[in-house]
Every structure is written in structure tokens, then in C-alpha cells.
Design a protein that fits this description.
By secondary structure, the protein is α+β, with helices and mostly antiparallel strands. Strand 6 and strand 7 form a beta hairpin. Helix 3 packs antiparallel against helix 4, helix 5 crosses helix 6 and helix 7 packs across helix 8. The chain is built from 9 helices and 17 strands. The chain has an 8-stranded mixed sheet with strand order 1-2-3-9-14-15-16-17. Strands 4, 5, 6, 7 and 8 form a 5-stranded mixed sheet that branches. Strands 10-11 form a two-stranded antiparallel sheet. The longest helix has 19 residues.
Length: about 400
């Protein structure tokens, strides 16, 4: 009898260490002995059992690769489970009249209406980009907490590019001295409002570390926010580009399209989503022939968005955009989600998806309605993913 296909290896796990930054998210999740990782593996395997047999090999292959492929495969598995629990009968990679590939899913509402769904994972280009030379520095700084557990949490931001290996030992010693002073000065757990910082430079590259929090327990990791990199696209620009790419790819579909976005920048908010879909905010007013202002300034939106540009309304086949903010195995119970419905047409969307939260125009105003907690929909416990080492940040 053929062995049942699984996402993870059937091995004995004894590794309780934190993951190095160069290590792939899948490799850490596959080999870690942490209870939290065991819980995530067990749940993901249950989801995988429900995935269509004909598509399992492809999903498994991508899920076990490095981060970009792993993230997209996880999101497709996550969406399939969400759709299944909403009783939307998800079909993977259905045939369609589009000449540019198949959509990721077809879903069918309780009324029998069919919709296509295209999935995409997006973060700011370069925002959290992997740089092996930078990783040497970040791993060395994290090792400070392994050598001597600390309660100080750091935010790391970089600018520029390293062209050669930096002086890791010197940087590590400098940060050690600085953290010791911070640890001595700030003894009360909680947010450090002053956010003392240190700047480290090497050639054309610089690193800024800021102490933003003190835990009430020891941690074996120093960097808890970032690293983030300056000089990248804004969230709304990145969102608009990615939604537009999917809308263009599937412009010839015979059914309504919904684009599902898993955004990973960490700083995205409603303003970014509104700017991407409806245009960036602008202040307008009217003047007479003599240049005198005849109306009070009022807020409008520029015609530079997914559903509207200077040529007017567009992509009427795109009926909705479903945003998930930061869906990962470790956050699956608490992800924020909203389905934005196209207000320029009589958009038809599955009512079942509105249970995830909605954003719809009512009386010329955008109205948000909260959806059910994903933890309830997916039957995940409140303390998901369970016991973890302080500073845990698995993908």
C-alpha cells in the first residue's frame, strides 16, 4: 500500500533552538521540537488531508521549498480550508476561458453561483528582503541573548547595502555594551517610551537599533521587530500593483473574480487598502476665474486605483478583493480579514465570504463590518499555537 502523502517528515525531533535567519521557514517548522511547532504541523496535516488528491503533489512540493514558494503554498492551503469550512465547495485550479492560466480556485455559494479566486502573497518589495550578509549581523546580535538572556526587545532598521562581510565581532561587542546599559536603566516591564537607540555604520550600510520594550521574562532573542529596510515602496503602491497584476491576468473570465491577498508588511492598514482600491486621498477646492476660492477644501481620491483611473471605471469582472493581514501558520487564529466589494458595479459576491468581514459603500460612505474570528472558524484554541519559547517568530 502506498504511503499517504504528508507535508512534513516522519522523524524524531530534538531541536529546541531558535531558528537562524538564513534558515527557511519550512525547515524550522519541519524539524523543531517546540510544542508550538508540533501543534502547527498537526493542524496543517489535517488541512492537507482535505486538499484534493490530484493537487497534493504540487502543493507539497512548493510548501517544502524556501520562503516565497512556501508562503504561497501555505496561503493556498489556508484559503482552501477557510473556503471548505464556509461550505463554498472549493475547486483547485479549475479550467477557465482565460488564455493566461487557470485561477487558483473556483468556489460555489449556497445559491449555486460560481466565482473564481486568485491568491497572492505580497509584502513591500525589499521591506523584509533576505540579505545573507545582513543576516550574519542579526544572528550575531540575537546570539547575545542566547549567551546571556535579556529582557530588552530591539527594533532593527537598515539602510543601504553591504558589499562585503561586516566586522561582526566588533558590532556584537558594541551592541553588548549598549544593551547592558539599557538593561540597567530600564527595569520596569512594558513599553520603553524613550526608545533609546544606537546607530552602526559600515561603508555605505547602516543599522539602527532601538530598544522599544522590556519583557517580564528572559528572552533568547534580541531583535523582535524587523529588520526593515528603508527606501522601498509604500504599502498602497505594492497592494495596487499586485491586485492589478491579477486582474489583468484574468480579465477574460466568464465568472466574477475575487482576488485574495495575504499581506506581510506588518504596517498595512485600512488607509493603504483604500488608496490601492479607490485612489490616494487628495484635498480639492474650486476657484473662480480670478483665482478666488469659492468652495471649502474637501477630500477626494485621485484616479490612480485598481477600480478607477483617469479613463474611468475598469476591471468590472473584479467583484471583490479579500485582504488577510499577515496570515501565517503561527497567526492563523487571529488574522484580520475584510472583503472589499466593488462599488462601481452591481457586484455579486458570495454571502458566505462576508462572514470574514466586509467593506462596502453604503450611502456614499465606506462601512466596515467585522467578521467571525478565524480561530472560531478554523477551530483553533485561544492560545494558538501553544507553548513556545520566549521570542518565538516562526513563519
Amino acid at each position: 500500500m502506498a504511503r499517504e502523502l504528508t507535508l512534513f517528515d516522519d522523524i524524531v525531533r530534538t531541536d529546541h533552538r531558535h531558528s537562524k535567519r538564513a534558515r527557511s521557514a519550512f525547515d524550522f517548522l519541519n524539524t523543531s521540537a517546540w510544542s508550538a511547532c508540533h501543534n502547527m504541523r498537526d493542524t496543517l496535516e489535517q488541512w492537507f488531508e482535505q486538499y484534493p488528491v490530484i493537487s497534493k503533489n504540487d502543493l507539497r512540493s512548493r510548501f517544502r521549498k524556501r520562503d516565497a514558494n512556501h508562503e504561497s503554498a501555505f496561503f493556498e492551503l489556508f484559503l482552501h480550508e477557510v473556503f471548505r469550512r464556509l461550505e463554498l465547495s472549493p475547486e483547485v485550479h479549475p479550467e477557465s476561458p482565460s488564455s493566461r492560466g487557470r485561477p487558483d480556485f473556483a468556489i460555489t455559494s449556497g445559491s449555486g453561483s460560481l466565482y473564481y479566486v486568485e491568491a497572492n502573497v505580497v509584502g513591500l518589495r525589499g521591506f523584509m528582503a533576505k540579505d545573507p550578509l545582513e543576516d550574519e549581523v542579526f544572528d550575531a546580535i540575537d546570539d547575545l541573548a542566547v549567551e546571556r538572556p535579556t529582557r530588552i526587545a530591539l527594533d532593527a532598521r537598515t539602510c543601504g547595502t553591504l558589499s562585503q562581510s561586516p566586522p561582526v565581532r566588533r558590532i556584537k561587542a558594541k551592541v553588548r555594551q549598549w544593551v547592558d546599559r539599557i538593561d540597567e536603566e530600564y527595569r520596569v516591564p512594558g513599553r520603553i517610551e524613550a526608545e533609546p537607540s544606537i546607530r552602526i555604520s559600515h561603508d555605505e550600510w547602516s543599522l539602527n537599533l532601538a530598544a522599544f520594550h522590556r519583557f517580564d521574562h528572559d528572552s533568547k532573542r534580541m531583535i523582535h521587530l524587523g529588520p526593515s529596510k528603508g527606501g522601498v515602496l509604500n504599502d498602497d503602491v505594492a497592494l495596487r500593483k499586485n491586485v492589478l497584476a491579477k486582474a489583468k491576468q484574468h480579465r477574460d473570465l466568464d465568472r466574477p473574480l475575487i482576488v485574495a491577498m495575504n499581506t506581510q508588511s506588518g504596517f498595512q492598514d485600512r488607509d493603504d487598502e483604500l488608496s490601492a482600491l479607490f485612489g490616494q486621498e487628495a484635498v480639492s477646492w474650486r476657484e473662480d476665474a480670478h483665482g478666488n476660492v469659492v468652495t471649502l477644501p474637501y477630500v477626494t481620491r485621485q484616479p490612480d486605483a485598481v477600480w478607477r483611473n483617469r479613463g474611468g471605471r475598469r476591471y468590472s469582472r473584479l467583484h471583490g478583493v479579500l485582504f488577510f493581514r499577515g496570515a501565517r501558520p503561527s497567526t492563523a487564529h487571529s488574522v484580520t480579514s475584510h472583503l472589499y466589494v466593488n462599488p462601481y458595479i452591481q457586484a455579486d459576491v458570495p454571502p458566505e465570504l462576508l462572514q470574514l468581514g466586509s467593506a462596502r459603500v453604503r450611502s456614499r460612505e465606506m462601512r466596515w463590518e467585522a467578521g467571525m474570528p478565524l480561530g472560531d472558524l478554523l477551530d483553533l484554541p485561544e492560545d494558538w499555537p501553544g507553548e513556545r519559547t520566549p521570542g518565538f517568530s516562526a513563519g
